[in-house]
Design brief:
alpha/beta; six-stranded parallel β-sheet; about 240 residues; single chain; about 25% strand; Rossmann fold
């Protein structure tokens, strides 16, 4: 499979390594200083583009891919207020877009566990739920896209929580998310249920970027030849 990489930071390098290990060809690498390469034959030969760039450039990158009918696997977060526009372009413009807030297979299993536990805890109001997430100091968005996904799943299933809020203080209806940026931490997400009697915690810790890179390449493999808006639920059937 021919893969184009958009964004060539640490994640881009990790994806390149995994893609080559799985027998794929990287036909184009586009970063901030070579945007003209979107129109080169090498990019146009791509079966799928994998995009891990920056929140302020991601949406424009997606549009450039769509203009050239290149399917996109999107890993950038922080631009999600425009997601409905992307979905419309998929349904009305016959484009292909795969989105996940986190490409780790383990994290997507964690998403399913989080949903299941939230459904159960809806019946036990003595437990208050909150969240913590830690990432490296280079991460620009806060809270992380993964943390927001986890929070949304909790809000869908626990009636007493009405909205998420970043910080350590809020009302009883707020799902608080404490976000930290430390060193080179790949990513830690923890859900905490606490009552007067006990505490229940579920936690996912990424050991490196390799799991994210593998998931992104697997998503590209899944996306090739398909149309529409796709997600990890489609790929993993969770």
């Amino acid at each position: 499979m021919n893969i184009a990489l958009i964004g060539y930071g640490k994640m881009g390098h990790a994806i390149e390594e995994i893609a080559k290990e799985r027998g794929h060809t990287i036909v184009s690498i586009i970063d901030i200083d070579n945007q003209k390469d979107f129109d080169l034959p090498q990019f146009l030969s791509a079966d799928v583009a994998i995009e891990f760039s920056q929140p302020d450039s991601a949406f424009d990158n997606y549009l450039k891919c769509f203009e050239r009918n290149i399917p996109v696997v999107a890993g950038t977060t922080g631009w999600l207020t425009r997601m409905e526009e992307i979905k419309t372009l998929c349904t009305e413009g016959n484009q292909t877009f795969f989105y996940a807030s986190n490409y780790s297979i383990g994290m997507n299993i964690f998403f399913a566990v989080n949903k299941y536990l939230a459904k159960m805890m809806n019946y036990f109001p003595s437990f208050n739920v909150s969240m913590e997430e830690v990432h490296h100091i280079h991460k620009l968005d806060s809270p992380s896209g993964t943390a927001i996904t986890l929070a949304e799943h909790i809000l869908e299933n626990i009636d007493r929580k009405k909205q998420w809020k970043e910080g350590a203080e809020g009302t009883n209806e707020d799902l608080l998310i404490r976000a930290k940026r430390e060193g080179e931490v790949p990513g830690i997400h923890e859900i905490i249920y606490e009552s007067e009697a006990d505490t229940i915690r579920i936690r996912h810790s990424a050991k490196s970027r390799k799991g994210l890179a593998l998931g992104a390449v697997m998503a590209a493999e899944f996306t090739k030849g398909k149309k529409g808006f796709l997600s990890m639920n489609d790929m993993l059937d969770l």
